[in-house]
Amino acid sequence: MDLTSVAEAVVRDEPGAFETFINEAQGRSPDEMSAAALVLSSSSDVQVNELLGNLLFYIGACDALEPLVLRVVEAFERGDGEAWERALLLPLQDEDVRAGLPHRERLLAAVPTDSWLYGLLMVVDLEPLLVLHRPTGTGFEVTIGGLGDNFQLHTLLAYRLVPEHVPGEPPLDAWVEAASVGEDLQPEGGIRGQFQLSDGFGDTIWNEGRPSDIPLFEGRRVVVLDPPPYQRSWNTGRIYPMMTPLVNIARVLPADEAASWLAKVSS
């Protein structure tokens, strides 16, 4: 069965077409799904646009993305965006869609800052991070992406650093899975923090914030790790279940370079 024909039936709101499309889309090639997505993008029905968004999560950015984004942003601008938000929540958990997102600034201006969609718009990808571990005087260039909040960053930094690079008790496997790609987002007993995180100016990096909130210090986002002053725990490993995170050590700083940075940052 031709998938674009089924998509046309969905747009015409033919009985059973929606369910047929979902079944027929399974296992189709990216080209077939992209063509079908373009057909779906002609519809102004919110449920059809949610279906389109789900499709874009699997195929990435394509020509059908722009009309979807325009409908969502226009809905927010006229005051009924809550009904349309779901259409972008899944596709924006795909890095390719985030990278190719049109009208980002217009969306940011229209979307409430306390919404799930705004949080996805603030996600950084392939972002360089300078991480300094003050107790050992070590430093690392880290590449991050796909992180919903600093709780997730905290857990995955500990996973990458402890105990191979810095001493301490490594996070449990269940915590790492909850913060990355595991199905159980809330491991039994919660997740415990290993560090106190500060920025280059000496201000606390709150776990409730996002990596994009970390200010630039001499042109770099800097995270300084200190021993935690008290034990802190949280329940949820990640807030966007379908978004794949990236926290990789790109380079271990030579001792003199790490010392130089540590001498610059505030305590």
Automatic annotation (TrEMBL):
Name of this chain's protein: Uncharacterized protein
Superkingdom to which the source organism belongs: Bacteria
